[in-house]
Design a protein that fits this description.
The complex is a heterodimer.
Chain A (H helix, E strand, L loop, with lengths): L1 E6 L5 H8 L5 E5 L10 E11 L5 E6 L7 H8 L4 E7 L5 H11 L1 H4 L3 E7 L8 H13 L6 E3 L5 H18 L1
Parallel strand pairs in A: 1-4, 1-5, 5-6, 6-7
Antiparallel strand pairs in A: 2-3, 3-4
Helix pairs in contact in A: 1-6
Chain B lengths: L5 H17 L5 E6 L4 E5 L6 H21 L7 E6 L2 E7 L4 E7 L5 H19 L1
Antiparallel strand pairs in B: 1-2, 1-5, 3-4, 4-5
Chain lengths: 173, 127
């Protein structure tokens, strides 16, 4: 199964893939020219694999965050079974960020499943009411998707999100 | 930010325009930052070199990744031969790359040699 991680710059896409991948991650990171408050930024893709029982695997692709790389979004989305949008909870308008990616991936989301990972939270056990704005947005868009706070540096946290996505795919089969 | 460096942009643009005027096989060209920002361009009506330039930064980064995987040192240049033309992408330095395009399919040698020559010239001029 192919899963695609997307979301805004600095939301933790590359980190999440590196955290759970069972192979050395193929990444295309370059120094940012602009002040992104990070050392590197993805300019083409990240690729990792998570090996599952019975020899199957999840192929994990990460997109660049910036919209100038939107051509990569389309390339990487082909054939994906699921999408993970990571939202940086500390950005000024995280719901608008989520909307930007939902809109841009809309044509693929109609035929696949979505999970939303909320990153940069002070508390990984975010109260449900803090996540409600994301659920309300998704409800408004008529999208059913799990929304979980995650720490991209923590394997169990990322794995939980992947499991949630896998479960929603199975439910929709 | 590299694309806001007026001196660098002016110097890079002067060299790019010289390259295009000295080698008339080159129909389009651009200099882009390694993270996909356009520094300067020369374009026809056929393509948007801003978009092609960003694609070029993705492609040479991917080529660098592949080269590292193969343990072949650094990627020197990337040649994309197509049915109707050729594109070449070359690192100027760790922050910039140059992309040139011709629609004359028999001119790979000339395109590559001219682009390499100007990549060195630009590197020297901005260092």
């Amino acid at each position: 199964m192919k899963f695609v991680f997307t979301g805004c710059v600095g939301s933790g896409k590359t980190e999440a893939i590196k955290t759970v991948s069972d192979i050395p991650v193929i990444s295309t990171e370059e120094k940012p020219s602009d002040d992104l408050e990070k050392q590197t930024t993805t300019v083409a893709l990240d690729y990792g694999e998570l090996h599952l029982a019975q020899g199957s695997k999840l192929e994990l692709y990460g997109t660049p965050g910036q919209s100038r790389f939107a051509y990569m979004w389309k390339i990487l989305s082909e054939g994906a079974s699921g999408f993970i949008i990571l939202v940086n909870h500390k950005r000024p308008s995280p719901v608008e960020d989520l909307d930007m990616y939902v809109e841009n991936f809309a044509e693929y989301l109609t035929e696949s499943n979505l999970a939303v990972g909320v990153t940069h939270t002070d508390d990984i056990n975010l109260m449900t009411n803090e996540l409600s704005k994301y659920y309300e947005y998704l409800k408004h868009k008529n999208i059913s998707a799990p929304v979980l706070p995650i720490d991209p540096r923590d394997a169990s946290s990322v794995t939980t999100l992947l499991q949630a996505l896998t479960v929603s795919i199975e439910q929709n089969l | 930010m590299i694309t806001e460096d007026k001196v660098l942009k002016r110097v890079a643009n002067e060299h790019l325009q010289n390259l295009v005027s000295n080698f008339n096989i080159i129909e389009e060209a651009a200099i882009v930052s390694s993270d996909g920002y356009l520094v300067c361009k020369y374009e026809s009506k056929v393509s948007s070199m801003e978009r092609v330039g960003t694609m070029g930064s993705s492609m040479i980064s991917l080529a660098d990744t592949m080269t590292a995987e193969l343990k072949m040192g650094k990627c020197v240049n990337l040649v994309i031969e197509n049915e109707l033309g050729i594109a070449v992408i070359i690192h100027i330095n760790s922050k910039l790359s140059i992309i040139t395009v011709t629609r004359e399919t028999s001119q790979l040698g000339m395109l590559l040699s001219a682009t390499k020559k100007y990549a060195v010239k630009i590197k020297q001029a901005i260092t």
